[in-house]
Write a structure and sequence with these properties.
FAD/NAD(P)-binding domain, Helicase, Ruva Protein, domain 3, binds flavin-adenine dinucleotide, 10-stranded mixed beta sheet, alpha+beta, globular
């Protein structure tokens, strides 16, 4: 799909190809609207590929008294677990209780009971010190009295975005990456009439007319729509993560760690065959135009926490595989402690321009519904929200294969690709139905994604369509020859272009994902 292949008029234009924009596009198409989404970099390039990858209620929001946000998030988590098997999966969380550190047993019991009541399912359970430390090998047991296990869920965030986009396109929607909106067009009365879209690499521009524009540009929202509330502005708060090889610490469930310096909760989370440690929460500053990268101070802060809880594991920064950082679209009225800022979303409306920003990935359907309700007066009268329908097209509960794939590999493929999983399996050589080392990704996924998911650059494929760039040592550099061979026909790049792409990818990885030492 290119700027030349799209029409000059749509019912609705959505700006921003993160989880918020993708969720809105999916719901708009379900409503029967002719909808187009424009993303100025790559799909999920922004915060939506850089989250902690949790689909969660957020236990700490309960502590802050944000009952509605927690309830909404738990409800959405339960729906996504039911509607996106293989993509959104349950994840056990372990919370150690140490004498005099963090919330005690009674406070946790009260919070977890409420959390489970919201899900209408009892998950949480208390374990004494010896049972708990069996579940968390190498945990520091000095002062450990026991701990709780509860349940949340996790996802591949960029694949969640991409599956929404794929299903929206499959049902008549349109989405373009590397196409930014440089201007919102208005008629003489000031009402929105269209946008100026620009290919950010070729510079090609065109005007597209529309009934309504939804601005879903997250942390960048105020560049297109000034805040209507005096003193309320987006405060870009950076959060970083470190990826650690799984063999360094045998964890099958996430563990909550209270940082010894400031008492903030950090998580160590098993994800896609590695461990993810994070996150930080600091002011990024107002320049959000470039790559968002992890600082040395953040890396030290995270590793200090890990050392305090797992001293026997002796994990240092040089053991980490990669790092990644994103900025939260948080609305702020002042200089609060970053971690105390609200994670609620807002909807602003002005003469055919609706902006939705803030919020969480977990509640993307709520954000989509609120934005589309705000847009409804500009849209055809017969367009009706259908949020009661499943978020995704259902996939077989127990897909059969016939090739050498396990039930969990099949579930994972259907979760990530919906019914397109079948074509990945059918067209694969048996030698490509193997894991790329250090990841749960099969080689066979690459050629199909290269051909079908609007790949402009190698980093789109390796950092977002699959996550080799975060999971394999050196961003998967040693696999680039095989990746090139597999993807050559799908990408139509000549050998010079491959050389450039490999160089650009490697330089980008060094700059944005190498662990600061
Ligand atoms: C470190 C961290 C951890 C997090 N962990 C979790 C978690 O575990 N669970 C959870 O539920 N939430 C989590 N969140 C929050 C969640 O990730 C964000 O709320 C969500 O990703 C925001 O999505 P978005 O689509 O609104 O913004 P983004 O994903 O940032 O997307 C906005 C997009 O708009 C594009 N854009 C900007 N300007 C233009 C323009 N003019 N034209 C076209 N496109 C434009 C950008 O390129 C960008 O891709 C986390 C956030 C951070 C930072």
């Amino acid at each position: 799909m290119t700027l030349q292949s799209i029409r000059d008029r749509y019912d609705l234009i959505v700006i921003g190809g993160g989880i918020t924009g993708a969720g809105i596009l999916r719901e708009a198409v379900r409503m029967g609207l002719d909808a187009l989404m424009l993303e100025k970099k790559d799909f999920a390039w922004g915060t939506s590929s850089r989250s902690s990858k949790l689909v969660h209620g957020g236990l700490r929001y309960l502590k802050e008294g944000r009952l509605h946000l927690t309830y909404e998030s738990v409800t959405q988590r339960q729906r996504l677990l039911a509607e996106a098997p293989g993509l959104v999966e349950e994840l056990g969380f372990l919370v150690p209780i140490y004498d005099g550190i963090g919330p005690g047993r009674n406070a946790l019991a009260a919070g977890l009971t409420l959390y489970d009541l919201m899900a209408r399912h009892r998950y949480h359970q208390y374990y004494d010190c010896s049972a708990f430390s069996c579940m968390v090998p190498r945990l520091n047991t000095d002062g450990l009295s026991g701990g709780y296990r509860f349940m949340d869920a996790q996802v591949d965030d960029a694949r969640l975005v991409q599956r929404l986009i794929n299903e929206a396109i499959g049902n008549g929607g349109a989405a373009l990456n590397y196409t930014g909106v440089s201007e919102i067009l208005r008629d003489d009365a000031g009402n929105v009439s269209g946008v100026v879209a620009e290919d950010t690499e070729t510079g090609e521009r065109c005007n597209i007319s529309t009934l309504c524009v939804i601005n879903a540009t997250g942390s960048w929202a105020e560049t297109l729509h000034a805040s209507p509330e005096a003193g309320l502005h987006l405060r870009p708060l950076r959060g970083s993560h470190l990826m650690i090889p799984a063999w360094r610490l045998p964890l099958f469930q996430a563990v909550t760690l209270m940082h010894p310096d400031d008492g903030r909760p950090l998580f160590i989370i098993p994800w896609e065959g590695a461990l993810m440690l994070g996150t930080t929460d600091i002011d990024h500053g107002s320049d959000i135009s470039g790559d968002i990268v992890t600082s040395r101070e953040e890396a030290d802060y995270m590793i200090t926490c890990l050392e305090a809880y797992f001293p026997a594991a002796e994990i240092s920064l040089k053991d980490c595989i990669s790092s990644f950082a994103g900025i939260r679209p948080v609305l702020s009225k002042g200089e609060k402690d970053p971690s105390k800022e609200s994670r609620e979303h807002v909807v602003w409306r002005k003469q055919g321009l609706v902006t939705v920003t803030g919020g969480k990935m977990t509640t993307f359907r709520t954000l989509a519904a609120d934005a589309l309700k705000a847009a409804s007066r500009h849209l055809p009268a017969n367009a009706r929200l259908r949020t009661e329908e499943p978020a995704f097209q259902p996939v077989p509960a127990l897909p059969s294969c016939g090739k050498s794939l396990s039930a969990s590999q099949m579930r994972r493929l259907y979760g990530r690709y919906g019914m397109r999983a079948r074509s990945i399996i059918d067209t694969a050589n048996s030698k490509d139905l193997e894991f790329i080392p250090g990841t749960f990704t099969l080689w066979a996924e690459l050629p199909v994604l290269a051909k079908t998911e609007q790949i402009r650059h190698l980093s789109d494929l390796l950092l977002r369509r699959v996550r080799i760039g975060l999971l394999a040592p050196e961003g998967g550099r040693e696999h680039l020859d095989r990746i090139q061979t597999l993807c050559e026909s799908g990408l139509d790049w000549d050998s010079d272009r491959w050389k450039i792409e490999r160089k650009m990818y490697t330089e980008h990885w060094e700059h944005a994902h190498r662990v600061p030492q």
